[in-house]
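Continuing the series of single-chain predictions for the mutant panel. This is the parent chain; the variants come on the following pages.
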Amino acid sequence: MDFYYTIETIATAEFKDRGSKFIANVFPIVTSNDFKNCLRELKKEHPKAAHHCFAYRIGYGENNFRVSDDGEPAATAGKPILGQLDAKQLTNVGVVVVRYFGGTLLGVPGLINAYKTATALVLQVTPVIKKHIEILFQLQFDYTKMNEVMRVVKQFNCTVADQQMQLFCILQIGIPKSRLEEVLYSLNELNGLEIKTV
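Parent structure:
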């Protein structure tokens, strides 16, 4: 597998059922800390909400996900939210559904439907993009090598994750998994370049 599906934009959608309001928020993430920051902001934005239920998936392995029912009956919120992410094969994505209680209990089937529907609605309005799976490498080189290094980076559609430019440069790049051998071969052809995995 050389590709994965994700999103680049933040989006919101709303679903109402018997007075309760479910506001689904979706956002791109790379680490669990990214997710925690988004969740913290949403809790500040909606301090009076009854629940902030969520699911997220990070990376390409099967087990890098988390779900929370945040006080709702077990498996009525987090799992249905994750189910929608998985149905679209999305990763590096977080969803938080904020619930304002409307006074009427929805019961287990009603809750599952509400969280699932709110998530489905927000994913409908969010463009999905296909991205190369990348492997991170750190390059260290003399500033005079910058043009040669950047030529290889552009030629193979690598992404620059981080850069520190002084007399001596440190560049963190993501190399598409499908072109790893070619890129490393081209970089190794350059003299005075130190390459290590991140």
